[in-house]
């Protein structure tokens, strides 16, 4: 499996993937799959940290980003959510 080079992935002002800038649907799906797994791990870790304002803001930004992914790719998000619970 090929490593994903995150530095080449277009990002928004919060450092999250800008899916509208990725023109290829297969590439968008590969990046989304990797990002969702990565961000779920980050959210879980951040929820165990001390309750800092920056930490809460980052979790909220990730949750908003998840909502955007769900709107763009609902089937993919649901598949990954099922995979992460097993």
Fold and architecture overview:
This protein is 63% helix and 0% strand. The chain has helices spanning 25-46, 53-72, 74-85. With 86 residues, the protein is mostly helical. The mean pLDDT is 86.
Order of SSEs: HHH
Radius of gyration: 13 Å
Q: Strand pairing plus helix content: what structural class?
A: mainly alpha
Total DSSP E strands: 0
Shape, per Cα inertia axes? globular
Main sheet specs: none
How far apart are the termini? 21 Å
What is the residue-averaged pLDDT?
A: 86
Hey, roughly how much beta strand do the residues contain?
Answer: under 5%
Helix proportion of residues, in percent? Answer: 55-70%
Parts with pLDDT < 50 across at least 5 consecutive residues:
none
The total of helices stands at 3
Fill in the keyword field for this structure.
mainly alpha; globular; 63% helix; 86 residues
What's this, in brief?
63% of the residues lie in helices and 0% in strands. With 86 residues, the chain is mainly α.
Write the layout of secondary structure elements.
Blueprint: H1 25-46, H2 53-72, H3 74-85
Helix pairs in contact: 1-2, 1-3, 2-3
